[in-house]
Amino acid sequence: MKNFVFNFKSKNTKKLKNPKNILGGKGFNLAEMGKKGFPVPSGFTISTEVCDIFYRNNKKLNNNILSQIKKELKNIERDIGKKFGNLKDPLLLSVRSGARVSMPGMMDTILNLGLNDKTVEALAKQTKNKRFAKDSYRRFIQMYSSVVLKIDSYKFEDLIENYKLTKGVLLDTDLSSEDWDALISDFKDLVKNETKIDFPQDVNKQLIGAICAVFISWESKRAKTYRKINQIPSNWGTAVNVQSMVFGNMGEDCATGVVFTRNPSNGKNEIYGEYLINAQGEDVVAGTRTPQYITLKSKLQSKSKQKSLEEKMPKVFKELKKNLRLLERHYKDMQDVEFTVENKKLWILQTRSGKRTAKSAIKIAVDMVKEKLISRQEALLRIEPGSLDNLLHPSIDEKSNIKVIANGLPASPGAASGKVVFTSEEAERLNSMMQDTILVRIETSPEDINGMHAAKGILTSRGGMTSHAAVVARGMGRPCVSGSSEIEIDYKNKNFKVKDQTIKEGELISIDGTTGRVILGEVDTVKPEISGDFLKIMNWSDKYRKLKIRTNSETPLDTKTARDFGAEGIGLCRTEHMFFDEDRILSVREMILSKSKEDRDKALSKLLPFQKNDFIKIFKIMKGLPVTVRLLDPPLHEFLPKNKDEIMHVASALNLTFNDVEQRMLELHEQNPMLGHRGCRLAISFPEIYEMQCKAIFEALIECKKKKIKSILPEIMIPLVSTEAEIKIMKNLVIRVAKDVEKKTKIKLSFLVGTMIELPRAALKAKDIAKHAEFFSFGTNDLTQTTFGISRDDSGKFLNDYIENKIFDIDPFISIDEGVGNLIEIASEKGRKQNKKIKLGICGEHGGDPKSINFCSKTGLDYVSCSPYRVPVAKLAAAQAEIKK
Amino acid sequence: MKNFVFNFKSKNTKKLKNPKNILGGKGFNLAEMGKKGFPVPSGFTISTEVCDIFYRNNKKLNNNILSQIKKELKNIERDIGKKFGNLKDPLLLSVRSGARVSMPGMMDTILNLGLNDKTVEALAKQTKNKRFAKDSYRRFIQMYSSVVLKIDSYKFEDLIENYKLTKGVLLDTDLSSEDWDALISDFKDLVKNETKIDFPQDVNKQLIGAICAVFISWESKRAKTYRKINQIPSNWGTAVNVQSMVFGNMGEDCATGVVFTRNPSNGKNEIYGEYLINAQGEDVVAGTRTPQYITLKSKLQSKSKQKSLEEKMPKVFKELKKNLRLLERHYKDMQDVEFTVENKKLWILQTRSGKRTAKSAIKIAVDMVKEKLISRQEALLRIEPGSLDNLLHPSIDEKSNIKVIANGLPASPGAASGKVVFTSEEAERLNSMMQDTILVRIETSPEDINGMHAAKGILTSRGGMTSHAAVVARGMGRPCVSGSSEIEIDYKNKNFKVKDQTIKEGELISIDGTTGRVILGEVDTVKPEISGDFLKIMNWSDKYRKLKIRTNSETPLDTKTARDFGAEGIGLCRTEHMFFDEDRILSVREMILSKSKEDRDKALSKLLPFQKNDFIKIFKIMKGLPVTVRLLDPPLHEFLPKNKDEIMHVASALNLTFNDVEQRMLELHEQNPMLGHRGCRLAISFPEIYEMQCKAIFEALIECKKKKIKSILPEIMIPLVSTEAEIKIMKNLVIRVAKDVEKKTKIKLSFLVGTMIELPRAALKAKDIAKHAEFFSFGTNDLTQTTFGISRDDSGKFLNDYIENKIFDIDPFISIDEGVGNLIEIASEKGRKQNKKIKLGICGEHGGDPKSINFCSKTGLDYVSCSPYRVPVAKLAAAQAEIKK
Question: What are the chain B neighbours of A675 within 8 Å (beta carbons)?
Answer without folding.
Answer: 672, 674-675, 785, 789-791, 794
